[in-house]
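PROTEIN DESIGN WORKSHEET
SECTION A - STRUCTURE
LENGTH: 206
TOKENS:
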């Protein structure tokens, strides 16, 4: 009869609605889990790169440095890419900057960053290797003149005194570390919230 048809139609609509809701919940859970997995991968990558470099850096104490001497001492060979599987030799000028550390009164060689010492421990500043040596020399001269112009500046030293050098800029400061970990943390929190809300909705609908 007509009432049976209406009831069957209502049941069919309810089943379709439940099926659609179930599919939506499944997609939401998958999205939440995917966000958590991505954030874990980002944590892992940051842990083996940025965090490790941050923990290994010994130049942790912010100090004041006063310029003693800034000179271009010699040139070093380097290589630059000129295309796929193509490398050419060039040279760069080596700028040496010696400073006086205000807190101790000692003389130290200044490096631009932590990486500068790894590339060439004789140079305070190393320009990007390129085919035009004159451009590299011009850039180094600008840096040298800036040091001579601003003779008092902030620097970072080793509080333990094991390193006989200081650095001008920290590549991996606590501020950089915070901003790098902020977005993976937001993604992880978002994924957890999505999964928790879906599970709570399923529990309340029982």
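SECTION B - SEQUENCE
RESIDUE ASSIGNMENT:
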């Amino acid at each position: 009869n007509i009432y049976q048809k209406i009831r069957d139609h209502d049941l069919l609509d309810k089943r379709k609605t439940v099926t659609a809701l179930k599919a939506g919940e499944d997609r939401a859970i998958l999205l939440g889990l995917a966000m958590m997995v991505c954030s874990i991968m980002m944590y892992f990558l940051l842990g083996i790169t940025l965090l490790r470099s941050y923990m290994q850096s010994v130049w942790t104490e912010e100090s004041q440095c006063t310029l003693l001497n800034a000179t271009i001492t010699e040139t070093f060979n380097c290589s630059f890419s000129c295309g796929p599987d193509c490398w050419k030799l060039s040279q760069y000028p080596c700028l040496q900057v010696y400073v006086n550390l205000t807190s101790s009164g000692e003389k130290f060689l200044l490096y631009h960053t932590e990486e500068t010492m790894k590339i060439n421990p004789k140079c305070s500043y190393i320009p990007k290797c390129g085919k035009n040596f004159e451009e590299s020399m011009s850039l180094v001269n600008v840096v040298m003149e800036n040091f001579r112009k601003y003779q008092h500046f902030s620097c970072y030293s080793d509080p333990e005194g094991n390193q006989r050098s200081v650095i001008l800029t920290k590549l991996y400061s606590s501020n950089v570390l915070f901003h790098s970990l902020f977005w993976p943390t937001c993604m992880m929190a978002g994924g957890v919230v999505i999964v928790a809300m879906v599970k709570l909705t399923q529990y309340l609908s029982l």
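SECTION C - NOTES
Residues 2-56 form the longest helix (55 residues).
The mean pLDDT is 85.
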